[in-house]
Every structure is written in C-alpha cells, then in structure tokens.
Automatic annotation (TrEMBL):
Pfam families: ArsA_ATPase (PF02374). InterPro entries: ArsA/GET3_ATPase-like (IPR025723), ATPase_ArsA/GET3 (IPR016300), P-loop_NTPase (IPR027417). Belongs to the arsA ATPase family. SUPFAM superfamilies: P-loop containing nucleoside triphosphate hydrolases (SSF52540). CDD domains: ArsA. This is ArsA/GET3 Anion-transporting ATPase-like domain-containing protein. Residues 2-111 form the ArsA/GET3 Anion-transporting ATPase-like domain.
Length: 129
C-alpha cells in the first residue's frame, strides 16, 4: 500500500514474510500448468521447503520490486529502492537466474525419478525369462 509521507514523496514498506508466502503461492499456481499432476504433491512439498530456505525472501522481494516498477512507473518521475547492504542487494538481483536453474533441476530430477519408477513397474509385470 502506497503511503504519502510528504509532498511529492510516497513510500511502500514491503513485508518480506508476507511477500514470500504470496510468491510461493503464485509459483505453485503457475507451475500447475507445467508439471504433471502426479508430481504436484512433491513439487508443492519442495516449494514449501524452499519457502524457508536462504534466498526465498530475496526471490519474493525481487518479484515484488518488478511488480512495483511495472505498476507504479507511470505515476512517478523516479522510483527509489532502499535495499539492504550491497552484498544482499547483489544476491537479490542475481536470484532470477539462480531460481530458474533450481526449478529446472528440480523438474529434471522429478522427471528422471518418474521414468525410473515407470521402467521398474513395466519390468516387474512384463519380465521375460
């Protein structure tokens, strides 16, 4: 929520925990169109685990920053973000690439496991001597 604190100066304070919860919920919704329904429970479990992992807050905050830029840029001459110290900000800005790699790895792992289980099932019932 935008709050005006002075003439020509508005602020938004972002709650990292709230944004992380909303971000994970949105990722779960978006990924449901990509992941096989039989894998959804495991994917949701992984995402719930990721919610507590290092970098989750930064990923959610990065998503929120992008939303603010896209939604508010037409209303203001300048958008200024007061972020954490430099190391945290660099980590925040590198997260899109890292999250993409993490999700691709997770999906590849699940797909490999799915095919391995299917192969075991088929070989068990159709084993020839």
């Amino acid at each position: 929520m935008v709050t005006q604190i002075a003439t020509s100066l508005d602020v938004i304070e972002i709650d990292p925990q709230k944004e992380t919860g909303a971000y994970i919920k949105e990722v779960k919704s978006n990924i449901s169109n990509v992941v096989h329904s039989g894998m959804m429970e495991e994917v949701h479990r992984q995402l719930d685990t990721a919610k507590a992992s290092p970098g989750a807050d930064e990923a959610a905050l990065f998503d929120k920053l992008i939303s603010i830029i896209l939604e508010e840029r037409q209303h203001y001459d300048k958008l200024i973000f007061d972020t954490a110290p430099t190391g945290h900000t660099i980590r925040l800005l590198s997260l899109p690439e890292l999250m993409g790699v993490w999700i691709e790895g997770m999906l590849q792992n699940q797909t490999t496991r799915h095919f391995r289980n299917k192969k075991k099932f088929i070989s068990h019932f159709f084993h020839t001597t």
